Amino acid sequence: MSEWSPDTRRVLRAYLRAIAVAEPLERELARRYGVALGDVHSLRLLRDLGEVPISRLSAALCIKASRATNLVDRLEGAGLVQRGADPADRRVTTLRLTARAQEALGDQALFESSDLARHVERLTPAERLLLATLLERMLERRPEDHAEPEEGHAEPSTAPQPLAPGGAAASDSSARSEVAR
User: Fold this and answer.
1) In a domain, 151, yes or no
2) Range of the domain at 22
3) CATH code of the domain covering residue 50
4) How many domains, in total, are found in the chain?
5) 26, 68, 27: which is closest to 49 by C-alpha?
6) For the purposes of burial, counting CB atoms within 10 Å of the CB of 53, is it exposed (0-12), middle (13-18) or buried (19 or more)?
7) C-alpha closest to that of 105 among 52, 43, 51
8) Quick check: is 164 in a domain?
9) What sign results for the dihedral spanned by CA atoms 26, 39, 120, 21?
10) 181 against 127, higher pLDDT
11) For 55, 61, 81, 119, which has the most beta carbons within 10 A of its beta carbon?
12) How far apart are CA 37 and CA 26, in angstroms?
């Protein structure tokens, strides 16, 4: 086992403590909608893509097809995603969000009232921007997660959002609504 530097240990401890702050939100999402906090991104992406084949969702999430199928199975089991057949090619299975998923994504009050939101709001705008930048950097795709994009489809950008005019971070209300979206 390799020795971690004190800085690495500090980061890991802080990250684990931050995850604990998100746990009540995770539990409430599971109780109300049967969805994990980590799946909200997948639901948002599917909402933005519209009705698409599983392969397109897999490519957009940069995950392997088998992992996307497992994700869809779980979301379908929770009543959040519905499979269908592509009218142009019935061999292709398409996905679309259910009304229950739309409700979960629209429950902004759940996110806004969370401890996680309160902790983030205590940060200054510059600190929030720095935290977002660092988390995005940490979560940049790993080579083993790359899935081949479906031919003819461009992969959506996962780049950080640009700063508002004048270099200021986005407003608090737009940042809050972005989390809930």
Assistant:
1) yes
2) 6-123+144-157
3) 1.10.10.10
4) 1
5) 68
6) middle
7) 43
8) no
9) positive
10) 127
11) 81
12) 5
